[in-house]
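User: As part of a screening pipeline, I want to sanity-check one entry by hand. Below is the sequence and the SMILES for zinc ion. Please return the complex as structure tokens so I can compare it with the automated output.
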Amino acid sequence: MKRNLLQIATLFFSVLSTMAQTRPAADLVIRNAKVWTVDSARPEAEAVAVLGDRIVAVGSNPDVDGWRGPNTQVIDGKGKRLLPGFNDSHVHFLSGGAGLDQVQLNDATSLQEFVRRIGERAANTPQGEWILGGTWDETKWNPPQLPIRQAIDSVTGNVPVAVARYDGHMVLANSLALKLAEITVHTPDPAGGEIVRDAQGNPTGALKDAAQDLLFKVVPPPSHDQRRRAIERALVHAASLGVTSVQDMNPEYADIAIYSELLEEGKLTARIYAAPLIPQVDDQVKIGIRHAFGSSYLRIGALKSYADGSLGSRTAYFFEPFSDQPNNRGLLADGMHPISLMRDRMMKADASGLQLCTHAIGDAGISAILDIYSEIEKAHGPRDRRWRIEHAQHMAEKDFDRFAQLRVIASVQPYHAIDDGRWAEGRLGHDRSSRTYAFRTFMNHGVRLAFGTDWDVAPLNPMLSLYAAVTRATLDGKNPNGWYPDQKLTIREGIEAYTMGSAYAEFQEKEKGSITPGKLADMVLLSEDVLTIDPVKIREVKVLKTWVGGKLIYDSAGLGSDRN
Ligand SMILES: [Zn+2]
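Assistant: Here is the complex for your manual check:
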């Protein structure tokens, strides 16, 4: 008996040591989960094993149990849904983080409430600081009306105010801020912008698009500490929402320096792809780096440009006038005056192997960028460039094919569809609205989608974006069956666009975007099964746990987080 036991034990340990030679034990095993892998080779599984920062096995519980060793942390998924971490293809990370601490104006339902909140903040603002942020949305007021400086002057006293409209294409200044910026009745409108004026020609305080720069140039830039605090806050927020990668549009170099600092300290809990603005193209060209250069946590090599403005601010650029403003068809952005300025910058970027991510919203704005992209391809020949159009909101019929032929990625934000869908048709008319946020039409044409939010223009929560893509139910409750329901996606298509689609859009589809052996272990465990619940309830789904590179960075149970 004793001998038998000894023999068995010896055999057991020799098997174990053989296993150890060929297969080290996993650091983490998640079992009893409903895994949706977004990998067509094995779409569903029960368990995942992680070694270091990589996934090493995906399969049934017994398949993966072979990876367990004495030091393996084993998580019981309790039948919950496990997905690849979300990759938000378009965020403004610093302003998102800073905004969590700024005056909250977005859900104000009247001008009075807007004014009251600004006044309250002014009373608590230290001397010398500005009131910024806000993300106000006058379309939620009854009646909707553009705010004017006189409405806030009496409650803001000595505090300069520059509160942004939620789309970032308009800002409202108080009289003090206009004075500091020396914006007067005599200041001409800059190219690509407008100083909104009253009947006498006096600035009302509202500044559109490029005119905002006249004001922002006198706002003191955030200090290093303010920047770092904002980014740290943004990282915590992202982790709590299962967002494990973000593609940061128009970061300043000082933001990239903070990312680099956090990376060195082991505190970067989301993977960042940073795309600075294209006027700075010479910097990246000079270094000689190409697209997606860097480490799994921090990469550069893309450039963000603006073709036009936004629908909300009536600065998106269209072939035909707005349906309710016959003399206005929007504006090209200042970087498009003249168009050859943009073409030259893009040609230079492309010659250096850099990626282009171009904001274009109106049909004529999108078309102008497709024109430039196709000229670049003619000049420099075919290559795997992964050009992107950010937003790609209102498409001309003729451009879907061109979009596909040039293999341009539609980097889209589904939440905008249920938000703008409340009022967009009044500005666009029926025909143009039918090609608005046209996710299904894009897919039918073979165009790849990457999902994101444009945070802080819209909430960072991926569940709201998935809800929007699947239901297209506008926020006002007026389209419960979907606004242009033909354009709805399935939940699986939505998740794919948010994971593999976004990974492809940053040249990282071999590294992340699915739960596949060999890929980075970025995963999220959800409170409900988003694949099977009533789509209306998707927006209520919560994140239970988030892992980045196999490390738990968020745990709703408050069991502590490992942020190394
Ligand atoms: Zn944006």
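Points to compare against the pipeline: The longest strand covers residues 203-209. The two ends are 48 Å apart (CA to CA).
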